[in-house]
Request: fold
Amino acid sequence: MAKKLLIGISACLVGQKVRFDSSSKTSHFCVNEFSDYVEYKSFCPEVAIGLPVPRATIRQIRDGDMIKVSRPDGTGDVTEALSAYGKKVAQLTKNLSGYIFCAKSPSCGMERVKVYRADGKGSTSDGIGAFAKEIMEANPLLPCEENGRLNDAVIRENFVARVFTYQAWQQLIESGLTKHKLTTFHAKYKYTLMSHNLIAYKQLGRLLADTDMPLQVQADTYIAGLMAAMKCKATRKNHANTLQHMQGYFSKHLSAAEKQELMAQIHDYRRGLLPLIAPLTLIKHYLMAFPKQYLAQQFYLNPHPAELKLRYSF
Reply:
């Protein structure tokens, strides 16, 4: 890695004791595994708007067609303050490559935040944190995730891959956008797109083939399509199909027994008997023995540092 990832994060997730009860909610993955590759920018919107630690709890309360954030009894409304701070942070952190929010928080939850009835008798789980909403709306391409969802191996790997992708895009734009850089970038993501969404891969290829479209419009449309496609979970079926495409690069080099071994590993992965790292390791072995420049440059083969072991458990 030439440059550490710059990621926004809820302050309680990195051990800061800023929650209502003076506690933290430290994320093992964020602090002990991912931190070697990340520079975190931590935020606690409640503290930032002047609420003390410790403090009375706040919640989202439905008030007619509106949702406000206040104490359970309806006093101490901080809805506007949280939203205003969210807008401010969203503009100050345009250079972030990702954001990790604290789940279920009335300020920082990405989704499924509890929204209570004004009388306190019942709730729904369809709210979005007042602060998080502003961050996500102002930066729709920004990879965002919650600490709880990061316990899922597939979601965790997906998020980290998206963050590294977005950082690579930011660096491309910073270096000066050209048509050649755009098409070269796309070429590196062929098999990544194939594993997530084959339709999107074909659509983005056609997009870049349009010679009449202004470059900036083409680039903006492209990265929106790429980031949306990568949010789709890559299934075992899609991964297996992608691996089979890669296998074709070695058809003239492998013996019948070697071909059979690779096919068996891909098949066993598809059936859930092996983790993804197993057939990938064999493909990388053959790539070392029989170099293929186009294949070697694929982001799919090395989307994140191997030390994170993100492809060992699914």
